[in-house]
Amino acid sequence: MHTTLHHNQQEINSRLKIFIDEIKKTERSDSHLITILHKAQELNGYLSKEIMDLVAEEMQIPTSVIWGVATFYHYFKLSPIGKYNISVCMGTACYVKGASEVLETIKETLEIEIGETTEDMMFSLQEARCIGACGLAPVAMINDKIYGELNPKKIVDIINKLKEEALEEEKIVQ
Q: Is residue 160 part of a domain?
């Protein structure tokens, strides 16, 4: 997801064009738009207006169609996401067991709203309809890991631990 840190925009665009050119060789290449948008997001981290314009131009599809697809599917991100993408489940089981308190605590702790990313690009916050771990309610998914039986104190501890891990990684890199 974070390839933007390693490649400049020209390289991302060129890799995406190569991918699109390969797809154009297949039958009914226009039916592969979602595959192309997944690849674009994988390369760029999110679907920027520039990336969507590039896909529109390369595929000869109006940008409005691409925007419609990108906004319809929950998976696509339209703004950069943080190193840790937090999705709080707001499904019935989680909601009943206090997910809204957990969500409010995250908003206060990170000083961001749903759909936003912290200024340091460390955390993003999303709401999920159901993560499918109802027995552990309330739950949140951070990147690909599920954290269950949450409460306000537990989620703050998790966030602090992730901040510490990120600082340790930075020290190692430097």
A: yes
Tell me 61's DSSP state: -
Smallest CA-to-CA distance from 69 within 79, 55, 81, 82 is with: 55
What is the pairing mode between strands 123-128 and 84-89? parallel
Cα-based torsion angle of the residue sequence 36, 81, 142, 156 in order, rounded to the nearest 10 degrees: -170
pLDDT-flagged residues of the chain (< 50): 1-6
Measured N-to-C along each axis, helices 33-44 and 9-24 cross at an angle, to the nearest 10 degrees, of 160
Is 136 part of a structural domain of the chain? yes
Q: What is the pLDDT of residue 2?
A: 43
Closest CA to 82 of 110, 120, 49, 51: 120
- The residue assigned the tokens 């759909």 is 115
Determine the pLDDT at residue 3.
Answer: 40
- 84-89/145-147 β-pairing: unpaired
Tokens of 65: 């169609």
pLDDT at 81: 87
What pLDDT sits at residue 101? 98
Q: How far apart are the first and last CA of the chain?
A: 21
- Structural domain of 166: 84-173
